[in-house]
C-alpha cells in the first residue's frame, strides 16, 4: 500500500496505473492499493479536504494489514513549519502502527523533479527524523536529477518516463533496505 499525493495518484496525462507506485508494484510483483490525492500532504488537505492521516483513515485503515506501507510526500506541505509537518508525520505513523502493528513502513521524502527549494529540505529533514524514530527506512529522492524529459510542462509533475525513473530508483532504494518481492 502507498499513501501519497499527485505523484502517487497520477496527474495530468499520467493515469494512476502509470505512476511510479504502480510501476514499482509491477516490478516487485506486488498488489498495489493507493490512498491519497493531488495536493495533499501530512498537513495540507488539498482540494479533497483530507491529509495523509485522513486518507489512511478513510481509504486504508479498514483493510487487512499489508506487509508494507509506503508513505510518500511532503511536496505539498509548503507554508507549514517543518516541526508541524514532522508532528503530523509522527501522528500518522503512530496510527499505522496502532492499527497494523506487524506492518513494515517505509517513508519516501518529498519528490522534486527540479531543484527543491530550501523549505522542502527542511520538511524532508523533519520527516526523516520521524522515520528514524519509528525505525522506518527513509528513502530520499529530493536531490536526484531525473532529466528534462521526465518533467511535464507544468514544471512540477513527472511524465510517464519520469514515473518510470522514479520507480527504478524506488525499487533500488527499497532493495537496499531489504525490501523486495518478499517484503517480510
CATH names the topology as Rossmann fold
Percent of residues in beta strands: 5-15%
The number of distinct helices, counting runs of at least 4 residues, comes to: 6
The domain count comes to 1
Instruction: Give the uncertain stretches in residue-range form.
Output: none
Category from helices, strands and their pairing? alpha/beta
Number of strands: 5
Radius of gyration: 15 Å
Mean pLDDT: 95
Q: Describe the main β-sheet briefly.
A: 5 strands, parallel
How would you portray this structure in words?
There is one protein chain. By secondary structure, the protein is an alpha/beta fold. The protein has a single domain (2-176), classed as 3-Layer(aba) Sandwich (Rossmann fold). It contains six helices and five strands; from the N terminus they run βααβαβαβαβα. The chain has helices spanning 6-9, 20-28, 52-60, 82-99, 118-133, 160-176; strands spanning 2-4, 34-36, 68-72, 104-108, 138-139. It has a five-stranded parallel sheet with strand order 2-1-3-4-5. The longest helix has 18 residues, at 82-99. The two termini are 14 Å apart.
Q: Quick gist of this model?
A:
The chain is α/β, with parallel strands linked by helices and 184 residues long. It has helices at 6-9, 20-28, 52-60, 82-99, 118-133, 160-176; strands at 2-4, 34-36, 68-72, 104-108, 138-139. Strand 4 (104-108), helix 5 (118-133) and strand 5 form a beta-alpha-beta unit.
